């Protein structure tokens, strides 16, 4: 009969995340579109939205092509929202799998968020190809900062997802609060407007939002003449660190009860 | 082989916490095939799931150096949209099976799924699903198998096959079993643990345990 390897914890963790990842692929996309649907759907959504706004705004917004300006905003926002929703549903979705001792919720969180990360990278590649074809002047002055901010958004979304996921295991009402809370994100994250377009007296209502900072900073990193004001990279780091820490504390304290309910 | 250290387990409810185990310290003896007996609602399945690591006690800990199977309920971890083969590979990966291709083949043979193995599980009959789940479990070498009325799966022929496989297993490995079928318990087990009022008692003699269980 089949022999079992002795694995250390890290190896088990790797294997389980890989297995969950493949399982996600296999179970999600077995219609005719297959896996391509995961790419086509967000690309078309982002493309249409950016295109409409781009057409209305004129060719340039703060030295950036308007289309690119919109792409930064909408890709970051949808990335945040899809990762948040994937991560916050992960616990419930994989509940039957916790029958296997090796499968623990943190693997579900990581696997489902990782899936969103990879989908978004492919989405961005496809968008870049489209932009190249329609002759948009695409420059990327400081790719490292863009990648860092992109990843920070991902960590923030995953951490919030973990917190929501675990608290909704105890209080199902949390899901409703979460849906309500993420609705205004589209309007308060500098997706359509840059912070510099907004009168200073309204800044205090927007400045708390790390997603806004991350989006503006990515634009600034890509187009040095963008002129982002009122944003700080330190603040994004600080938010990411505190949310991740909070998520891990909540996780460590409550995961066993959450799957034993 | 399995040690429970000050384990307390309860479920919260409107009527206060419903205790299943209260500060239990207990060791399952080695090299025995053990039945878990108890009245309905006494917490057999919960204890079972805690031994498997599918659930955790509210306080205390459960430790073991042996490798323990997952509770082979009717379709643990089987995803209806995935094919039998994909499901097998998932279970193999999670459990760290060294040779997935060989494992796949074994499961296919044992579950007698033939070409249906490559169709989504949603097209299977319930018997076939149970056969797949059972085959996935017995095809892996564990020290202890947790069997939850799983020998009642499939048709007569498969039942016999499942029983034979488990009997072969009980030579090199051990079985912990939850079942209401006394005949089945006599067939596989040589001793028993009775759950009563949040405490566990081990009985070396199966017949003694059964007579106590009948009085519960």
Structure description:
The complex is a heterodimer of chains A (261) and B (216). Helix content of chain A is 71%, strand content 2%. Chain A is mainly alpha-helical and 261 residues long. Chain A has a two-stranded antiparallel ribbon. In chain A, helix 5 packs antiparallel against helix 9 (210-222) and helix 9 (210-222) crosses helix 10. Chain A is globular and about 60 Å long. The relative contact order of chain A is 0.13. Chain B folds into 2 domains: 2-69 and 178-215, Rossmann fold (3-Layer(aba) Sandwich), CATH 3.40.50; 84-140. In chain B, 37% of the residues lie in helices and 24% in strands. Chain B contains 7 helices and 8 strands; from the N terminus they run βββαβαααβαβαββα. Chain B has helices at residues 44-52, 84-95, 100-111, 126-138, 156-172, 182-188, 206-215, and strands spanning 2-11, 18-28, 34-37, 59-64, 144-148, 174-178, 191-196, 199-203. Chain B has a 5-stranded mixed beta sheet with strand order 5-6-3-7-8, sandwiched between helices. A 3-stranded antiparallel beta sheet of chain B has the order 2-1-4, with helices on one face. In chain B, helix 2 (84-95) crosses helix 3 and helix 3 (100-111) packs across helix 4. In chain B, 48% of the residues are buried.
Helices and strands, with pairings:
The complex is a heterodimer of chains A (261) and B (216).
Chain A: H1 9-28, H2 36-57, E1 60-61, E2 64-65, H3 66-93, H4 105-133, H5 143-170, H6 174-182, H7 185-188, H8 203-206, H9 210-222, H10 233-260
Antiparallel strand pairs in A: 1-2
Helix pairs in contact in A: 1-4, 2-3, 2-4, 3-4, 3-5, 3-9, 4-5, 5-9, 5-10, 9-10
Chain B: E1 2-11, E2 18-28, E3 34-37, H1 44-52, E4 59-64, H2 84-95, H3 100-111, H4 126-138, E5 144-148, H5 156-172, E6 174-178, H6 182-188, E7 191-196, E8 199-203, H7 206-215
Parallel strand pairs in B: 3-6, 3-7, 5-6
Antiparallel strand pairs in B: 1-2, 1-4, 7-8
Helix pairs in contact in B: 2-3, 3-4
Quick tags:
heterodimer, A: 261 residues, 10 helices, 2 strands, globular, B: Rossmann fold, 5-stranded mixed beta sheet, 8 strands, 37% helix
């Amino acid at each position: 009969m089949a022999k079992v390897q002795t694995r250390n914890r890290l190896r088990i963790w790797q294997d389980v995340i890989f297995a969950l990842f493949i399982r996600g692929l296999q179970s999600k996309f077995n219609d005719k579109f297959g896996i391509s649907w995961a790419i086509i759907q967000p690309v078309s959504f982002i493309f249409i939205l950016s295109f409409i706004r781009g057409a209305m705004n004129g060719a340039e917004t703060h030295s950036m092509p308007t289309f690119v300006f919109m792409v930064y905003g909408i890709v970051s926002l949808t990335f945040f929202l899809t990762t948040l929703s994937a991560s916050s549903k992960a616990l419930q979705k994989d509940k039957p799998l916790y029958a296997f001792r090796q499968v623990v919720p943190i693997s579900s969180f990581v696997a489902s968020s990782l899936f969103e990360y990879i989908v978004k990278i492919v989405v961005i590649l496809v968008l870049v190809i489209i932009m190249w074809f329609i002759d948009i002047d695409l420059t990327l002055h400081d790719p490292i900062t863009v990648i860092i901010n992109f990843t920070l958004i991902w960590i923030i979304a995953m951490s919030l997802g973990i917190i929501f996921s675990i608290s909704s295991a105890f209080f199902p009402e949390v899901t409703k609060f979460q849906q309500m809370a993420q609705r205004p994100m589209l309007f308060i994250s500098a997706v359509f407007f840059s912070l510099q377009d907004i009168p200073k007296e309204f800044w205090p209502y927007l400045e708390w939002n790390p997603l806004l900072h991350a989006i503006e900073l990515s634009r600034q990193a890509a187009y040095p003449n963008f002129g982002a004001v009122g944003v700080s990279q330190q603040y994004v780091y600080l938010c990411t660190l505190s949310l991740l820490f909070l998520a891990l504390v909540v996780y460590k304290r409550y995961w066993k009860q959450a799957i034993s309910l | 082989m399995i040690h429970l250290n000050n384990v307390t387990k309860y479920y919260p409810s409107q009527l206060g916490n419903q205790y299943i185990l209260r500060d239990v310290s207990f060791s399952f003896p080695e090299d025995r095939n053990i039945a878990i007996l108890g009245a309905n609602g006494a917490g057999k399945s919960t204890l079972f799931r805690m031994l498997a690591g599918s659930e955790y006690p509210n306080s205390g800990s459960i430790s073991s150096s042996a490798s323990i199977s997952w509770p082979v309920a009717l379709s643990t971890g089987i995803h209806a949209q995935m094919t039998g083969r994909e499901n097998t590979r998932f279970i193999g990966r999670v459990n760290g099976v060294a040779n997935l291709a060989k494992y796949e083949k074994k499961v296919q043979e044992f579950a007698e799924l033939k070409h249906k193995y490559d169709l989504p599980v949603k097209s299977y009959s319930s018997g076939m699903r149970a056969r797949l789940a059972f085959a996935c479990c017995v095809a892996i070498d564990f020290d202890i198998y947790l069997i939850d009325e799983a020998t009642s799966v499939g048709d007569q022929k498969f039942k016999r096959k499942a029983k034979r496989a488990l009997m072969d297993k009980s030579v090199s490995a051990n079985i912990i079993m939850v079942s209401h079928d006394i005949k089945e318990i006599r067939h596989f087990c040589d001793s028993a643990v009775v759950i009563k009022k949040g405490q566990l008692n081990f009985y070396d003699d199966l017949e003694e345990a059964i007579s106590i269980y009948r009085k519960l």
